[in-house]
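Lab notebook, page 48
Experiment: co-folding of the full assembly
Goal: obtain a model of how the components sit together before planning crosslinking
Operator: M.T.
Materials (sequences as entered):
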Amino acid sequence: MASEPKNGHAETQERILHAAERLFAMQGYDGTSIRDITAEADCNVAAVNYHFGGKDKLYVETFRRLLVDLRDRRIVSMRRDMSAVSDPSLEYFLESFANAFLEPLVDGSRGRLLLSFFANEMTGNHLPKDLFLDEFIRPMVQVTTEGLQQTGPPLDPMIARMCMMSIVGQLLHTLKGLPFFSNPKGPPLVPTELGDHIKHVVRFSAAGIRACAAPMEAS
Amino acid sequence: MASEPKNGHAETQERILHAAERLFAMQGYDGTSIRDITAEADCNVAAVNYHFGGKDKLYVETFRRLLVDLRDRRIVSMRRDMSAVSDPSLEYFLESFANAFLEPLVDGSRGRLLLSFFANEMTGNHLPKDLFLDEFIRPMVQVTTEGLQQTGPPLDPMIARMCMMSIVGQLLHTLKGLPFFSNPKGPPLVPTELGDHIKHVVRFSAAGIRACAAPMEAS
DNA sequence: TGACTTTTCAAACACTTGTTTTATACTGCC
DNA sequence: GGCAGTATAAAACAAGTGTTTGAAAAGTCA
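Observation: model returned without errors.
Model output:
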């Protein structure tokens, strides 16, 4: 087993993962052929099957790495923010969460890749079902509802999670819809700056959360 | 040109559209072969190219029909609700919108198809770019911000549209996330009933909207 | 009926897919 | 040196893709 890079560029295995990351993200699973990948990784078609045992296995491995990386970046970012001030406000938490949530998805080219990767996987379903829930959703739900209950008004846990869903939904929709709405032929329908949307979501959601804590008025 | 159904089942053209609708929705563009479609439509492979001029054209036509149908159902439903009462409240509008938005996506099998179709298209991008924006987004934005400004507090148009984005984001995320969150091995993380989520979104968003109308406090 | 168009069909075409085979280089070890 | 084990490569494989062809069938209208 050679442990040194060969003539300047990385191991074949790593080159394949890199190429796969980019191509799966941009073109989806079905849209990417093994030959696309091996061409970009500058190796033979057989290499994928040799090193990973098939296209599907390569896909899962590629996605798993991205998923874990994203999760950890978010959690670290939030924990850092939350321990930076004493007695953080609800608005502070929401902004920290929004940034931790969005930052890895928009910074540089890797962010766009991740976002695109997720979008593709959402519909394609080429992953083992539990990978996503166990390795990604649950930890995020855990740490976020925690922060919410720490900074916000007292909330029933289930309602707290629905509030987090409301926020995540807004953020995701903003990310997906922004290029759509902000650059048509006419004047933009909504602000073009992501920061403006974050401010809006924070304001909108802080009020929403507080309303969910208030006793329900008869309707 | 035969204008009568032939021996009991519809014209080939219509049968193809029907099958395409179902298959494109469930398996996406790449995941569906012409042979899949023609097998389900009970006709020859060549029929697709004869009647539609290619797989891509068939896809666009299939999607266009669904899109227009969905848009009209939503708009009709909202207009009906809004003219059913005099001086409707913000909460009333929000609930009407949420129902008009979700109903076509969850009723019976066709709703699920539509939802799945949309999800697939979001990532696949097999449509002419303007079709979606011009025939779908703009009319919806028009009628919804209208209703919002009619029932809610006075809002800057751009802020009104951001509020609508907030609501749509929540609804879409609920729809996508609900099967995920509500049926794991353990106890459900959030309510399993869509109606409970709608109530939450209405409450959450009404407060959010009112907060967006209030003059911004210094932060 | 017979000419004419529209529609259907089986077959073939040219191409891409994921995977496997077979052979060749390279590694470290004795 | 020779001999494992690992890694790469070219070629071939079987299956599936969208599309086209050319002929047969069905339908239309004089």
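Interpretation: Chain B has two domains: 1-53, 64-218.
Next step: discuss with group before ordering constructs.
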